[in-house]
Amino acid sequence: MDQRFINLFDRFTHGGMSRRDFLDRLTLLAGSAAAASAILPVLEDNYAHAETIAADDARLVASDVTLASGIRGHLAYPAAATGKLPAVMVIHENRGLNPHIKDVTRRIGLEGFLAFGVDFLSPFGGTPEDADKAREMIGTLKPEDILQTAKAVRLDLAQHEKSTGKVGAIGFCWGGGTVNNLAVADPELAAGVAYYGRQPAADGVPAIKAPLLLHYAGLDERINAGIAEFEAALKANGKAYELYLYEGVNHAFNNDTGGARYNKEAADLAWGRTVAFLRQHAGA
Length: 284
Fold this sequence. Notes:
Elements: H1 3-13, H2 19-30, H3 33-43, E1 60-66, E2 72-78, E3 85-91, H4 99-110, E4 114-118, H5 131-138, H6 143-158, E5 163-172, H7 174-185, E6 191-195, E7 212-217, H8 221-224, H9 227-236, E8 241-246, H10 264-282
Parallel strand pairs: 3-4, 3-5, 5-6, 6-7, 7-8
Antiparallel strand pairs: 1-2, 2-4
Helix pairs in contact: 1-2, 2-3, 6-7
């Protein structure tokens, strides 16, 4: 896939243009409407491939639930679990709690956690099926409301009957940025894992208590522009963190429904590091 197509799609998915403008530019770049039509499905998420772990997998208890705070989401934990479990909130990209993120939540559940995929669009009736509409809705959320929701979920999970009280968080893209901001705002967060997430302001770093695992994509110039300042602040303030830059891969490399941007080798490596990190810092 020509990197120019991926870069254009990245701009579109992060609010850089309307769908009409994106399709017009894709057509111009591809050379024809027919060529653009052939390229588009390779760029967009295909949720037909989202369910690597079925919602009715016998190894799990998994269902859509509403927490005590009124926040909706997808809950998953091992069916065989007899004791309490460390909890992990899973924070979606800027397209809401879609089938892919629900699947990621079940993957975390299978690893021995009480996993909850948060729907940040709960106050508006939940994530719509239309990804463009979901992206528009998320763009209207206020930073303070996003943090309020995340903190409420962290508290809900800490007090859940199946929980040990320790709660970590993992987020992707928009969700990765939300994890970073939550680490600044909530000293009770046990651990944070951010996949290609926007960095918080450097002056907020001294407030971070949770150890952080930071995954970045080598070709992701937009997000990577903030790495140096963030890492310098983490070092200067003696914060516990691990940072990995996966060379030659794109933003959203973990999303296995994401066509051209998905990179299995990097995704598998990052996932292994993620599970080990969460077990170390959010485990019992």
